[in-house]
Specification:
This protein is mostly beta strands and 481 residues long. The chain contains 4 helices and 26 strands. The protein folds into 3 domains: 146 residues; 110 residues, Immunoglobulins (Immunoglobulin-like, Sandwich); 158 residues, no CATH class. The strands form 6 sheets. Strands 1, 3, 5, 6, 10, 13 and 14 form a 7-stranded mixed β-sheet that branches. Strands 15, 16, 17, 18, 19, 20 and 21 form a 7-stranded mixed β-sheet that branches. Strand 7 and strand 8 form a beta hairpin. It is elongated, with a radius of gyration of 39 Å. The N and C termini lie far apart (90 Å).
């Protein structure tokens, strides 16, 4: 060493600059309850300054050491930190350094996400000498020990649609009116831009609130249905023609930053016993083409249930058919005229009904009752066209029970039920089992059981899923908003 050479460099590190408290990375920073977002830190290294002032091998005297996360916090908001494994969120409460994701809490509001950082090691790698070859194990030097730092909060907003509620899904019924309109109030915990997707021939009109907004009111209406009916059309403002327009409807909200959106379903019903469905000339399921023509439109239940798998056979509606106990007592009629058309009437939508109050008929309600009477009356049509060979006459039917004498018990061609048993009939007796119905009804009641048979379970469930009438199968599943 020459006398004028500077003394050997001795590192003297300070903690300056301190570990940065820059907020952690959270993406996105608006999310839904239970949603998983990505989290991480921007700072990967801590730098300590060599204060010796000359001859330091580190550029500008700054030595870098890697940082690690020692803790994550959401301020006890109720969320969870973890990672994705095979696409599934897995909490890692004891391994903060493995955290890459955060599962939002179920409560709504602002969540403060912070991370605590500390040096992973105090040993900084000394820069290698110029080429040709760096040393195989680069030497290190001890740096200063910084205090752990908690990052500044990154605010994550957990938001949601609050009205209509989600669990359980809420319901609304279109009123018995023309046009029919139903107001729906929608709210969210964060200002949002709103839209709604409705069934065919339904429209939505909104209030004039400036968006984004936390609350709006929209009106489901048949007033502006598309395509609109011609001017002066009597169907203007009536309910949609298709049953599929009811049931699930979708509300959408985009929160104010437009980085998070929410879909919310609700259910739409028609009034069962109202008659504000459209009348379509020539469509036998939409008119009262009964024995007396010119009746008002059929009830909504008949119009819409006739579009479901509960409907079978070729039927029309007649509200003035009169049963044994007066108007409204009868559910269906086949007039034994040899045609393939039967009539459905008011009693086919009733609850807790057996045909003729007979235990030989299943006890059914609503759309199941309608399905049963379709089978019942079609059985009469099939019997008339098959066993009787056409319109009924008293020829060969001495007791006028609509059964040929040759088909009654004791005869070679006696008819059998679904279980292979002979029907309990006898020539000369109209009502052999004295159940209040003539013996031909035994055949029709036997056919009703096909609707409740295990083999028909899937079709019956489908009919239930298509029942959007007030008081129907789906009605109790959804509370009012």
């Amino acid at each position: 060493m020459r006398g004028d050479d500077p003394p050997p460099h001795i590192h003297d590190f300070s903690t300056n600059p301190l570990i940065s408290s820059e907020p952690a990375m959270v993406c996105p920073d608006a999310a839904l309850p239970g949603e998983v977002v990505t989290v991480g830190i921007y700072q990967t290294d801590d730098q300590d300054t060599c204060e010796t002032g000359y001859g330091c091998c580190f550029q500008n005297g700054l030595a870098s050491t890697p940082l690690k996360v020692t803790a994550w916090s959401d301020g006890n908001a109720g969320g969870a930190f973890g990672k994705l494994v095979g696409g599934q969120f897995t909490p890692t409460p004891d391994n903060p350094e493995q955290v890459t994701s955060y599962r939002c809490p179920t409560t709504l509001g602002a969540v403060s996400i912070t991370a605590t950082l500390d040096e992973e090691t105090l040993d900084a790698v000394i820069p290698p000498p110029p080429p040709p070859l760096p040393p195989p194990d680069p030497p290190t030097v001890r740096t200063a020990d910084d205090d752990p730092v908690t990052t500044d909060p990154h605010i994550l907003v957990v938001w949601d649609i609050t009205t209509p509620e989600e669990a359980p899904i809420r319901k609304y019924a279109m009123p018995d009116a023309q046009p029919s309109e139903r107001q729906v109030i929608v709210t969210a915990s964060r200002a949002a831009y709103w839209s709604v997707e409705l069934g065919n021939q339904l429209s939505a009109t909104w209030d004039t609130s400036t968006e984004p907004t936390t609350a709006r009111t929209f009106t489901i209406s048949t007033r502006d249905a598309f395509p609109p009916p011609p001017a002066g059309d009597p169907n203007y403002g009536k309910l949609p023609s298709q049953n599929s327009s009811f049931g699930p409807q979708i509300l959408a909200a985009y929160e104010e930053s437009c980085i998070s959106f929410r879909l919310r379903e609700f259910r739409l019903f028609f009034v069962k016993n109202a008659s504000n469905h459209p009348v379509e000339d020539g469509h036998i399921q939409d008119h009262d083409f009964g024995l007396n023509l010119g009746q008002p439109p059929s009830p909504n239940w008949y119009h819409y249930w006739s579009q479901t798998v509960a409907s079978s056979g070729n039927h029309m509606y007649d509200s003035i058919l009169v049963g044994r106990n007066g108007p409204g007592d009868i559910a269906g009629v086949y007039v034994m005229d040899g045609s393939n058309i039967f009539w459905i009437s008011t009693g086919a939508c009733a609850d807790n009904v057996r045909a003729y109050n007979s235990p030989k008929s299943p006890l059914l309600s609503g759309i199941d009752n309608f399905a049963r009477f379709c089978l019942h009356e079609q059985a009469h049509a099939d019997h008339c066209r098959g066993n009787l060979g056409g319109p009924w006459t008293d020829e060969g039917d001495a007791d006028n029970d609509w059964l040929l004498d040759a088909n009654e018990t004791g005869q070679a061609n006696a008819l059998r039920d679904r279980n292979g048993q002979l029907f309990p009939t006898q020539v000369g007796i109209v009502d052999f089992d004295r159940d209040g119905a003539n013996d031909c009804e035994e055949i029709a009641m036997d056919k009703e059981w096909a609707w409740v048979a295990p083999a028909n379970a899937q079709r019956r469930q489908q009919a239930h899923a298509e029942d959007w009438s007030t008081g129907g199968v789906q009605w109790p599943n959804y509370p009012n908003q």
